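Researcher: I'd like a structural prediction for the single chain below. Treat it as a standalone chain; there are no partners to consider.
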Amino acid sequence: MSGRQTNLALLGLTALAFVTGFGAFSVGTQTGWVVVVAHSTIGLATLLVARAKTSVARRGLARNRSGKALSISLAVTAILTVATGLLQVSGLAPNLAVVTTMQVHVGAGVTLVVLTAIHLFQRPVLPRVADLSRRNLIRFGGLLGGAGLLYVGIEAVWGVTSAPASSRRFTGSHRIEDIADVPATEWLNDADPQLDDSHQIALAGSFINVPDLTSFDDSETATLDCTGGWYTKQTWSGARLDRFIDPKAGESIVVRSVTGYWRRFPIRDASSLLLASHVDGRRLSSGHGAPVRLVAPGRRGFWWVKWVDTIEVDDRPSWWQPPLPIA
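Model: Treating it as a single chain, here is the predicted structure.
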């Protein structure tokens, strides 16, 4: 494979890694395992191309031209992205200093895409019709196939050795048994508002008092799978949203936090969404969303709005929102 084709292969793998990584970051139901496996396979395929790229990079660095700092930064970021991905899966180091390994992996991955775009702008690598030859397509398919076999082999090793990786969830998250050990994570710049039971939730033109939620005694055993790389399965209790919302009142439900954070859901999901005040028979802690947080089974942790303040019904479709929260 020529240097140009090696660069094209890496460019394609980086694009695929970003798309599947975004999917893996977002998916919460078991049916999404295919996306996660694809993301892992593409990451391993990148490793398989690394040797060929090393030769290309060595020749490039030997030339006296600008852009070396960017090239080196790109290489370091790529290594960091793959290394933290493998480390996250292994479960051997869930945290790196004050952040989780998964957070470093995601941050490095996003940075890698940005640096790749800049690098591509400075040194364009354009595909040619000849690159789509049968031979090259078979090569690329063989690369992905080899990476897939490597993935299966690594998973088999994890299972035989009973390493932490063998018990991880399909998303790559590792289990935390006790809710008391669950980190009190916030999204972006959210801060714990320290509310008490005098807090009221505005819903459909009226207000719900926090103590009133306990009278419904609804409960749901659901998995909170945080994009930080951990998950916990607990029994949450409070009141289902369909007790307060007419399923014909609109198209979607917007759940807002006192911090301004919000997520939109299809109104048909009201019967599965829970306003929880307790978890595992205990009152929620403030860091975990007290006095009331949303429980959204089958969705990743960023859908589980903390410190619920307002619930609105409107006619916009549920997809009318950023794919990931921006506030």
